[in-house]
Amino acid sequence: MAGSSAIAIRDLTGAALIAALDGLADLRIAVFRDFPYLYAGDRAYERDYLTAYAQSKGALIVGAFDGDRLIGAATAAPMADHASEFAAPFRERGMDIDDIFYFGESVLLPDYRGHGVGHAFFDRREARARELGFSHASFCAVVRPTDHPARPAGYSPLDAFWRKRGFAPVDGLIGEYGWRDVGSDAKTQHPMQFWLKSLTGRD
Ligand SMILES: CC(C)(COP(=O)(O)OP(=O)(O)OC[C@H]1O[C@@H](n2cnc3c(N)ncnc32)[C@H](O)[C@@H]1OP(=O)(O)O)[C@@H](O)C(=O)NCCC(=O)NCCS
Predict the structure, then answer these.
(1) 8 Å CB contact between 137 and 100
(2) Any domain includes 159
(3) Is 178 in the pocket of ligand 1 (CB under 6 A)?
């Protein structure tokens, strides 16, 4: 069992970020296989998806390491570089995606959970967003029905954690991402609820 003292957290940008992308793909494939993502890992999808971080000057990976091994990671990038397809629904709500630092994913191997790494992932991404002058941070999370057959008994969503971090879901702001679910033959679209936080305290 891992202990918190074994975990080192580092901000990765530039060449260090690029060097971490394969490890990030491995983590995404391992961690997102579980409910609620149920992602049937796909290397080609990973290469395509992770290119956005490699190409974005403002991108950040917060890496969690046990020795040299990447055992967790959280990602962020200017929303205009990473999720520009969602510009229109944000604009309809009076928001400009140029003001938003987008948090991509937080993935941590199960043995390392419960030691505050999830909070560190938010702290460091919010700090970078402020340094870069963004007024808001946003992320999205898959929406699954509460009676989904793959929902484990005793599953508890992360909503309370995200609210405690100052994020709130934006009513009706739901995007879509496509991937193949475990047990499915084909890629399907998945509704993704956007959450938003003001970094300036103004709204
Ligand atoms: C999200 C994740 C990185 C959090 O990691 P962590 O290091 O265990 O989180 P922390 O120890 O910092 O705990 C953060 C808070 O969330 C709560 N929390 C953590 N996991 C939880 C869960 N499964 N259900 C409910 N609350 C949870 C903790 O109790 C803690 O609350 P507190 O501040 O009141 O003590 C990790 O659970 C994970 O990889 N989950 C699977 C992937 C995922 O769903 N990612 C989020 C969407 S991209």
Answers:
(1) yes
(2) yes
(3) no
